[in-house]
Amino acid sequence: MTGIPVGISTCLLGKEVRHDGGHKHSRFCTQVLSRHFEFRSICPELEAGLGVPRPAIHLREYHDGLKLIETKGTADHTDAMQGFIDQVLPTLADLRGYILMAKSPSCGMERIKVHNEDGNVQLSTMYGVLIVWDQICSQVFACLCSAVNPCQLQQLK
To answer: Which of 23, 86, 112, 133 is the most buried (most CB within 10 A)?
Structure first.
């Protein structure tokens, strides 16, 4: 028997793919949920070509929309991320849910800070760009994992 196919943020599996070369290993995901799910790992920032380590990025809202900008500078990674999303989206159709890194600007589902053009925080309720741009989680179950909050299963609408 195979598990339910579920996407998971690579850093939650203990892989050192975060911007600072670290991880956010979730033992709940790897030791408990892995018994029921067949994980397919994904790290949007790494797979968009940003590398490890890499400068931290955040979302900035401009008059023409959201952009992924380095926190210390003006380098724009929006097109690289959009290219990754366009490439990977068709391969995710069989997944039944997603376990995503909370507060991530690329794949977080809640508590994502959005900055204005000057880099100052203006909102903190947006979704990460992977969720905003492709709407892949509109009717699936997702488990949100972070070091602060325990995993909780919730239905997205």
So the answer is: 112
